[in-house]
Amino acid sequence: MNGQQLKNSILQLAIQGKLVPQDSNDEPASALLSRIREEKKRLVEEKKIKKDKPLAPIKEEEKPFEIPESWEWVRLGEVTSLYIGKTPERGNAAFWSENDYPWISISDMTEYGHIKTTKESISKKAAVSCFKRISHVGSLIMSFKLTVGRTSIIDIDAFHNEAIVTIDRLCDNNNYIRDYLFYLLPLLSNMGDSKDAIKGKTLNSTSLNNLIIPLPPLAEQHRIVEKIEELLPLVEEYDEAQTKLNKLNNELPEKLKKSVLQQAIMGRLDTRNDKDEPASALLARIREEKKKLVEEKKIKKDKPLAPIKDEEKPFEIPESWEWVRLGEISIIARGGSPRPIKEYLTDSSDGINWIKIGDTDKDGKYINSCKEKIKIEGLNKTRKVYPGDFLLTNSMSFGRPYITNIEGCIHDGWLSLSDYEKCYCSDFLYYLLLSPYAKKQFGSKVAGAVVKNLNTDKVADSVFPLPPLAEQHRIVGKIEELLTMIERLKQK
């Protein structure tokens, strides 16, 4: 149960007479209602208020729940006098002023708030021309259009718009009825048929006058308000604590996931196996393979990468592992975009998949489909990738790793990573580049004032730990076992 639900439960108990005990010494609500009727009759005779149209008796089927014997079901118009405001003509500059008279709109109202200032003011001319009366300090107002049932007490004399009604109480010198309605009208005005009547077809004083209210004895109204005001601060504390708990529950799985990935790349997730070929032997073979491919002119000779300094190694790794620059173990190439791209897009079934960053799921691992295709003529201006190839975003949402399950072409917002001699498992590389360490490292290397760009040289220069190949597979198995457990925790 969240804070709002708890608050609604308290208010529901209040309007059912279950929040505070009844007192047999209280004057019953029927006597209060008689006095209100007499007061209203007198004010009509003195021409201080208009005579309302007779309100229909309340039928049994209109009563949504049982109330104590000392209470009465009444219509709002029986116990109050209502006044609906107006909005002066917006195009008439003479009606609007910076400081003549405060004018209240729904945006000035807050839940159970007091209004001391308003965003807009109207002129004396508007006050005389558009309004029959002003709402005085201490008046209760309620919104009944768009935002239904928001109540406020005004601490200033003010006018208000036509989506707000001033609710004047009768026989209420101590503001007991006002405060009772202040807390309970938000719930009552959104219950059952009353909500439809106010929000829907008839936005006028008739629908408001007919709103059904459970009326307690005056003394009990006071006790109800005191109890509500005692409980609401506790509800706020509960809501804050619940919000913090919900936030913790939402954040915990992601924090656990990050922790698992970080432990994995530090060699703390799996035990060593003496039979594993060390990463140094794997790295030596990679260098030999790379040298051979350069001599055979199958790849270009890269710029020499600087030796890794001790200060670039942020944590200790197992002896069988090696620190490497990503460019040592991968061929890193940027995609390309035939331009103008619109001329190369096609609906033909023999077109080539055009893989865009928008085809990815932010939290997904694989690219399984794409929305667009390009003509075969665009091939020499882009880069082709194949199922199993590793991709990395290099602009905007930079550094997000993916493995493609489809053949296609990639634009220049992608980098493709190909390895030598199968020196790494694609799944391990995925989790390695998904780790907080990789995110931090890439974040320190991006450039661009508006669009952040992670180019091939910066990715090649990045420093990462390289485990033995056999251990990479074991680490992936352990990661996926733990991530499944975290996902179950998240669902619970």
Please tell me about this protein's structure:
With 492 residues, the protein is of the alpha+beta class. Helices cover 37% and strands 18% of the residues. It has helices at residues 3-15, 29-45, 76-79, 124-130, 176-188, 192-199, 205-209, 218-265, 279-295, 326-329, 426-434, 436-445, 456-461, 469-491; strands at residues 72-75, 80-84, 96-97, 101-104, 113-115, 120-122, 140-145, 147-154, 159-160, 164-169, 212-215, 322-325, 330-334, 345-346, 352-355, 366-367, 372-374, 383-385, 390-393, 401-404, 408-410, 414-419, 463-466. It is elongated. The relative contact order is 0.10.
Short description:
With 492 residues, the chain is α+β, with helices and mostly antiparallel strands. 37% of the residues lie in helices and 18% in strands.
Q: Give the uncertain stretches in residue-range form.
A: 197-203
* Strand ordering within the main sheet: 2-10-7-8-5
On the 0 to 100 scale, the average pLDDT is 89
How many helices does DSSP assign? Answer: 14
Coarse morphology: elongated
- What is the terminal-to-terminal distance? 16 Å
Helix amount, in percent? 25-40%
Major beta sheet summary: 5 strands, mixed
Count the strands?
23
Structural Rg = 36 Å
Coarse structural class: alpha+beta
Strand content: 15-25%
